[in-house]
Amino acid sequence: MKVAKFGGSSLSSASQIIKVANIIRNDSNIRFVVVSAPGKRNDSDIKITDLLIALHTNHSIGISTTSIENQIIDRYQQIAVELDINVAIVKEFQAQLHDLLQTITNSDRLLDALKSCGEDFNAQLISQYFNKIGLEAEYKSPEAMGIFVTDEPGNAQLLKESYAKIATHKDSEKVLVIPGFFGVSKQRNIVTFSRGGSDITGAIIARGVEADIYENYTDQSHIYSAHPGIVKNPHAINEITYREMRELAYSGFGIFHDEALTPLYEVRIPIQIKNTNAPEIVGTKIVVDRGEVKKYPVIGVSGDEGFISVTIKRYLLNREVGYTRRLLQIFEDHDINVEHIPTGIDDISVVMRANQFEHNNKLEELLEDIEQQFEPEWIHVEKDLAIIAIVGEGMRDTIGIANKATAAFADSNISLRMINQGASEISMFFAIPSKDLKKALNNLYQNYFEK
Amino acid sequence: MKVAKFGGSSLSSASQIIKVANIIRNDSNIRFVVVSAPGKRNDSDIKITDLLIALHTNHSIGISTTSIENQIIDRYQQIAVELDINVAIVKEFQAQLHDLLQTITNSDRLLDALKSCGEDFNAQLISQYFNKIGLEAEYKSPEAMGIFVTDEPGNAQLLKESYAKIATHKDSEKVLVIPGFFGVSKQRNIVTFSRGGSDITGAIIARGVEADIYENYTDQSHIYSAHPGIVKNPHAINEITYREMRELAYSGFGIFHDEALTPLYEVRIPIQIKNTNAPEIVGTKIVVDRGEVKKYPVIGVSGDEGFISVTIKRYLLNREVGYTRRLLQIFEDHDINVEHIPTGIDDISVVMRANQFEHNNKLEELLEDIEQQFEPEWIHVEKDLAIIAIVGEGMRDTIGIANKATAAFADSNISLRMINQGASEISMFFAIPSKDLKKALNNLYQNYFEK
Description:
Keywords (chains A, B): Amino-acid biosynthesis, ATP-binding, Diaminopimelate biosynthesis, Kinase, Lysine biosynthesis, Nucleotide-binding, Transferase
EC number (chains A, B): 2.7.2.4
Enzyme class (chains A, B): transferase
Family (chains A, B): Belongs to the aspartokinase family.
Structural class of chain A: alpha/beta
Number of helices of chain A: 14
Mean pLDDT of chain A: 92
Oligomer: homodimer
Largest sheet of chain A: 8 strands, mixed
CATH topology of the largest domain in chain A: Carbamate kinase
Catalytic activity (chains A, B): L-aspartate + ATP = 4-phospho-L-aspartate + ADP
């Protein structure tokens, strides 16, 4: 039994929804369908969710909301007309929006409630369409499904007891259509998830009903071994582990949010990446353990810009007990998340994302504190660093993985600012100047996959 | 102007002392001579310092000390006779030993006082011999020189005001002969240095009198680019920086103790390694900045066994703010010094010296605490690790340094357990299985220096 989640681009128009219906019709194992709000139909289009946020903004500052409301309702109206279903339902959507705007006075609560409409209306429309074409389906709100969450607006966390409630829907004879992106709190407020949106709902449902697999439909069939925008024609990955994906995601791959992966990882339910526009392609499977680890020790290479390093040096630093912990405490006091901590004997580098220093004098204040507490001989900041990750579960048992990487850097005349490989050996990180990122990724890809 | 320090093997017998006298005679720039106690004359010999410690032990437990006392006195007597100087001085040494044993009741104080005699007697003998052969010299006790230290037995720390006092001897017309290894406290106790012995005294005097260079005479002419016991005929180093030496010393090179280097590093006085038995050889110079950094980016490779790593893994570990600091706190609570901390996304390894776990259940207790405080999915301990250091001030600006290393490991089929290179890039560390250490060092040496 499967849970299928469809992303915004898969549900952006009537023609896309027809594709989705065909997918469900052709696979009787799909018993639960989690839907997003209608996404962009083309590059200049606006997502329904963004329109709903704009509606909230205009309402808050007292500007007329009629025009935006009309845009939202027109979009659903057009889908309903093209799908040839009763447009009475769209009138109800309009009434519901009005109702929310008039009854909810707390601005944060209103924003959550409005945002949830994108998915909620879509689920109702789609359920109606399924029934019209003879696919027995039923719309289920998150409340009806039992998705109970914490009460902080925009930051819903699932309450564990939800799984038992969701499980009661396990043997539904109808296909259940569920809006993604939000749950309901014990105080009966609608609360949206902070990140990962509908992916989280899909994962929660899949876990709750103990699905064999969670199919995640977008407009991509695969995860690739390198970023297709940087490396020309990288090969598609058939199977990747959760941990490999997470290490790759760290530096550039952005298909899933962690929140969406955790519920499934814990109970070892695999995720199948599927393409709504080409459902015949098997796609990439995300699993807990993968086969062919020996044949493909490295699964992918990725890289991201926007890192910065701070290095301090002091003669005999290494002899002070606890200096690393004390240094990290300073970063923590300044609310800076640290990524890597390569150490020498009398020096230590701290590598982190540079966007944490965007505001005010955060970097200067941090450096001042380090200066005062450590009195280093030398403190050096290096900006514009990129981090490259080489990832694969089979790296540990394969000799020469590091050598292929360092050869790629040396051959392309790239200076290595940091190397970090730990004992778990599922990944290896290199810091290089940002300007060399493209060249480095291309050469690495060649060394691992083409030679 | 130079300060010269002579080690135990350089002063173990009359014939060695004659060599030392010739060195002083041939270099009128040497104005201060710091001496060790007589060392071993051959492999089965016993150092005077060890005899003095045994004297203390026997005295403490109430066993007759006559035999050991005689051995000590006989040794000085033999030197005096062979140097043809008045043996009356040796009688004074014997009286002084007796006096100490009878007057000092505190055992730790007595030990320090007895140990200091090794250097002190030798300095007196040598000074007398210098004068006999027409080399105008004067014995100066640490107290007379102004070497004032803290009062904890066996753990003397120099008091900074000493330098000004030492400086008053700067223009002495005679060559001053000073015993190494100890100073005097404000309470007028003799206190020995904890480590580094006479090297520290030499460094302190060199700094106090603002020497141009500190010559350190032992039975070696050079520091080598790899351990001669492991790599066959490694090349001698002409110039090495303080920091390079410290990074190399970390994993196997053991010529100097840090305490002995610090006073000189701070004021940029270079150290010249010299061989008493071959003073015509220039030897290795230790400097703050060296030339030829571009020509020889790597100065040496070294390695040491006896490391252990603890790796913990938990999905989403990376998202917890401050987890590294919290983990290091546990190690600190267990009094464990940590050497390297390679990090992945959801795993972190801690590498440290294994000898810290020799007693009781220290490792088990540490792991239990980690288990409780982190609830990792997976905790892995790897024993029998060796750490290899590749060191050189020029590494930062040279492409391909890492590649030569990883090539050496890959070619010798060695699995890399950890790689650590930070932004200061004066060193690069690799953890490998201990069994592969010899092979790795030999291949690395070849890759850096022979190809």
